[in-house]
């Protein structure tokens, strides 16, 4: 018999504030000397644990890894494979340089979307701009990546 999801199930009871805080915390440790664009991501898994990742750039630019994929690597290395929510935090206006207006709410890139699709059919995703609570949007992996590539059905 399938277990009913209780109040403590992270799928139905996502503590978004805590997840965004974890993303903000790891964002400060991003290694982004080339783009100066620091990103933090925090993945909540079905076990209730949070795995955080930041972008790590390289002098050979193409080797850079995004925050979202960093978080997935942390999750898999810890033996988990069932993400239930993702928070992503991108830089606020103060980091954008002179003359910058309102920053865009940074959404996960295509490569990160497909990497997320490896571990979840769908996933709520909250995207926030650091330091500006009005710039927050909650969407889903299925909305961001319809018709993800899947080698197998089911
Ligand atoms: O989904 C994304 C898109 C970009 N970046 C990083 C990569 C690079 O270090 C910086 C500028 O593109 O932002 C992420 O972390 N996640
Ligand atoms: Zn990415």
TrEMBL record:
<keyword id="KW-0862">Zinc</keyword>
<feature type="binding site">
    <location>
        <position position="66"/>
    </location>
    <ligand>
        <name>Zn(2+)</name>
    </ligand>
</feature>
<dbReference type="GO" id="GO:0004126">
    <property type="term" value="F:cytidine deaminase activity"/>
</dbReference>
<keyword id="KW-0479">Metal-binding</keyword>
<keyword id="KW-0378">Hydrolase</keyword>
<dbReference type="GO" id="GO:0005829">
    <property type="term" value="C:cytosol"/>
</dbReference>
<dbReference type="InterPro" id="IPR016193">
    <property type="entry name" value="Cytidine_deaminase-like"/>
</dbReference>
<feature type="binding site">
    <location>
        <begin position="55"/>
        <end position="61"/>
    </location>
    <ligand>
        <name>substrate</name>
    </ligand>
</feature>
<comment type="similarity">
    <text>Belongs to the cytidine and deoxycytidylate deaminase family.</text>
</comment>
<dbReference type="GO" id="GO:0008270">
    <property type="term" value="F:zinc ion binding"/>
</dbReference>
<dbReference type="InterPro" id="IPR006262">
    <property type="entry name" value="Cyt_deam_tetra"/>
</dbReference>
<dbReference type="GO" id="GO:0072527">
    <property type="term" value="P:pyrimidine-containing compound metabolic process"/>
</dbReference>
<dbReference type="GO" id="GO:0055086">
    <property type="term" value="P:nucleobase-containing small molecule metabolic process"/>
</dbReference>
<comment type="function">
    <text>This enzyme scavenges exogenous and endogenous cytidine and 2'-deoxycytidine for UMP synthesis.</text>
</comment>
<protein>
    <recommendedName>
        <fullName>Cytidine deaminase</fullName>
        <ecNumber>3.5.4.5</ecNumber>
    </recommendedName>
</protein>
<feature type="binding site">
    <location>
        <position position="112"/>
    </location>
    <ligand>
        <name>Zn(2+)</name>
    </ligand>
</feature>
<feature type="binding site">
    <location>
        <position position="109"/>
    </location>
    <ligand>
        <name>Zn(2+)</name>
    </ligand>
</feature>
<feature type="active site" description="Proton donor">
    <location>
        <position position="68"/>
    </location>
</feature>
<dbReference type="InterPro" id="IPR050202">
    <property type="entry name" value="Cyt/Deoxycyt_deaminase"/>
</dbReference>
<dbReference type="InterPro" id="IPR002125">
    <property type="entry name" value="CMP_dCMP_dom"/>
</dbReference>
<dbReference type="Pfam" id="PF00383">
    <property type="entry name" value="dCMP_cyt_deam_1"/>
</dbReference>
<feature type="domain" description="CMP/dCMP-type deaminase">
    <location>
        <begin position="14"/>
        <end position="152"/>
    </location>
</feature>
């Amino acid at each position: 018999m399938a277990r009913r999801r209780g109040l403590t199930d992270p799928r139905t009871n996502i503590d978004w504030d805590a997840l965004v805080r974890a993303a903000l915390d790891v964002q400060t440790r991003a290694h982004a000397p080339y783009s100066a664009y620091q990103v933090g991501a925090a993945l909540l898994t079905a076990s209730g644990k949070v795995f955080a990742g930041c972008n790590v750039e390289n002098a050979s630019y193409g080797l850079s890894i995004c925050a979202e994929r960093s978080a997935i690597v942390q999750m898999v290395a810890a033996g988990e494979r069932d993400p239930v929510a993702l928070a992503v935090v991108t830089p606020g206006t103060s980091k954008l340089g002179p003359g910058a207006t309102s920053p865009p709410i940074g959404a996960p890139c295509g490569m990160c979307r497909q990497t997320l699709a490896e571990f979840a059919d769908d996933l709520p995703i909250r995207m926030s701009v650091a330091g500006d609570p009005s710039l927050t949007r909650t969407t889903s992996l299925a909305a961001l990546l319809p018709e993800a590539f899947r080698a197998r059905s089911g």
